[in-house]
Amino acid sequence: MLKHVVRTLATTLVLSMGMGVGVAHAQSPQPTTSAPPVTMGQINLTFYVATGAVVQAVLEDLGHKVTVSEGNHPTIYDRLGKGEVDMLVASWLPNAHGKLQAPLASQLVEATTLYEGARLYWAVPAHVPVSAVRSVDDLRKPEVAARMDKDIIGVGPGSGLMVGSGEVMKRYGLEAAGYKLGIAPAPEWAKRLGDATASGAWMVMPLWQPQYLNAVYPVRVLEEPQGVFGTDRAVVVVRKTVWENWPARTRTVLSRVQLGIPVVTELERQIVVDKKPSATVAREWMRANPDIVKAWFAP
């Protein structure tokens, strides 16, 4: 049953993105003359890698030589503030990354919004009955706490997910109910959800969208009545001094780049599940969606 769900979800995403066989390739755009090199900051989670690969491909097609600088959330924002990276793909605003970006806001330009509706949340495997666990509040129920895995494991030190999850723990009194919040490497974090789905165990998964796990495993988002997590947009931010020195053509094209949550989810799934190089995934999607890419590069 699980394999059927996974196959159906993946097929639906691919078809919705126009990635079927026989789609014409986009024509290669003419590079921008005198395009300066770019150091692109990228947070080291694979859904950022997916969007970064597309933005990198666009900049390269405009004639820029792109170097990628990767790190966790605090590290990349520190590099952005020091001018060690020229841009960040991408900042979640106004909530998840708001506090990290606030000290740098006057130095930055919002170049484009890659997708709307970015969300952080806690979820449970779909086999956990909604009658028992509908919201974060329900985790305190004695009968739920007795069955639920008490280790709530997230990913990304210093991320909005973990900062917000710490606040959720406090506001809902979950430590008193025996829960502990921790961090694990991304593969271990993802494996926990896979294991729970296979075994029927009850667990809580700090998660977000876009995220490939939403397309691979059936999960249900928990209601969060106090509204700790908000809804964001994913913005490519560029240092003002860099933006002003870029060719007008680069600024125009980059400002048109939009992807959407279903696209990013599928690109990340191919990177993680299919083990395809991010550059390959980005280029294949661009070739399979020539009309979208031509609109970005239109005169």
From TrEMBL:
Domain ABC-type glycine betaine transport system substrate-binding stretches: 37-287
Question: Which residue windows are coiled coil?
Answer: none
Q: Where is the signal peptide?
A: 1-26
UniProt keyword annotations, A-Z:
Signal
Name of this chain's protein: ABC-type glycine betaine transport system substrate-binding domain-containing protein
Query: Do you know which InterPro entries this protein is assigned to?
Result: ABC_Gly_betaine_transp_sub-bd
